[in-house]
Design brief:
By secondary structure, the chain is α+β, with helices and mostly antiparallel strands. The termini are far apart. It is globular. It has one domain: Jelly Rolls (Sandwich), CATH 2.60.120.330. Helix 1 packs across helix 4 and helix 2 packs across helix 4. It is built from seven helices and 14 strands. An eight-stranded mixed β-sheet has the order 1-2-10-7-12-5-4-3. A four-stranded antiparallel β-sheet has the order 6-11-8-9, with no helix packed on it. Strands 13-14 form a two-stranded antiparallel sheet. One of its GO terms (molecular function) is dioxygenase activity.
């Protein structure tokens, strides 16, 4: 039943590879469907992203946050939502699961998809240059390689999700012609055990899917229907995947976008690198009629993904509130 879980399942994605048998693919699709209809979360094994690349990205994350503050502040987040976000500069006021009053206890570097200077959409909202530190040139190289590998994984997963919804494997392809990609390199310092203070306050993600690599510190928790917070500790060799709000709406509520939070009450710094795989800014998101059962109505109004996303970013990030 939706929301009734006390653990997060491990799903082996090997069955989604091109060379996999039809039986293996059907088994993987069924496992994804079950996980995302129940908890909206899954640990992904057999994902095919090289572990050495994942580890290099983790090392670059730590190296960036070890830079002097003036170097990081020189990359302060720009109007295209790329760059450094200092500690306590985002408050999740759009959270539908909690009244959030305190900023998140974290700092991060936000990297998005690269935009060619001659792209017809260059300069439009969220379509501008990334910012990387000159003193750490390997960060750019590693981040772009990591994002390319994660994008390929996102494409594979999207095919499996389409099949899980009873749609053709390539149904989502047209909506991801120029996907909206976010790689957020996060650092959570040790936080005091203070009421309503979080590394990341209870929330659901906005987009399609999130693919998270966390370190071995822990702190991620997922809320079930009974209101219990279930720990999602790291499992070596896996990503944590979760459904975002737009996929939950797209699936007409079949897949569940589940509240989660981060509390770093250890005496250690925590680093994580969530990757968000989202539709093109100009993609029209509407529930496919061929997915609906007889008499079932679409719960969401059609929306351009870019409009939907910008509304949320504008409310949750200090730098965007001040600019508006």
């Amino acid at each position: 039943m939706k929301g009734e879980f006390d653990n997060i399942p491990v799903v082996d994605l090997s069955g989604l590879k091109e060379e996999a048998s039809a039986e293996a693919r059907a088994e993987t699709v069924a496992a994804l469907k079950s996980a995302l209809e129940t908890s909206g979360f899954a640990y992904l094994a057999g994902h095919g992203v090289p572990e050495d690349l994942v580890e290099r990205m983790r090392q670059m994350n730590m190296a960036f946050h070890a830079l002097p503050m003036d170097e990081k502040m020189a990359l302060k987040i720009n109007g295209f939502h790329r760059g450094y976000m200092p500690m306590s500069s985002s408050t999740i006021v759009t959270s539908s699961v909690a009244k959030v009053t305190k900023p998140n206890r974290s700092e991060s570097l936000m990297i998005m998809h690269e935009v060619p200077e001659d792209a017809p959409y260059a300069g439009e909202p969220l379509q501008g240059p990334n910012q990387f530190p000159e003193s750490l040139p390997e960060l750019r190289e590693t981040a772009l390689a990591y994002m390319a590998a994660m994008t390929a994984l996102g494409q594979r997963i999207a095919g499996g999700l389409a099949e899980a919804l009873g749609l053709p494997r390539g149904w989502f392809d047209d909506h991801f012609q120029d996907p909206t990609l976010f790689l957020r390199l996060l650092h959570y310092p040790e936080q005091p055990d203070e009421e309503e203070l979080f590394g990341s306050a209870p929330h659901t993600d906005y987009g399609f899917i999130t693919l998270l690599k966390q370190d071995n510190v822990g702190g991620l928790e997922v809320r079930n229907k009974a209101g219990d917070w279930i720990a999602a500790p790291p499992i070596e060799g896996t990503f944590v995947m979760n459904v975002g709000d737009i996929l939950a709406k797209w699936s007409n509520g079949r897949f569940v976008s589940t509240p989660h939070r981060v509390r770093n009450l250890t005496r250690r710094d925590r680093y994580s690198q969530p990757f968000f795989y989202d539709p093109s800014m100009r993609a029209l998101v509407e529930c496919p009629p061929e997915m609906l059962a007889k008499g079932e109505k679409a719960e969401m109004e059609p929306v351009l993904y870019g409009d939907y996303l910008l509304e949320r970013l504008n409310k949750n990030y200090d730098y965007r509130k001040k600019a508006s």
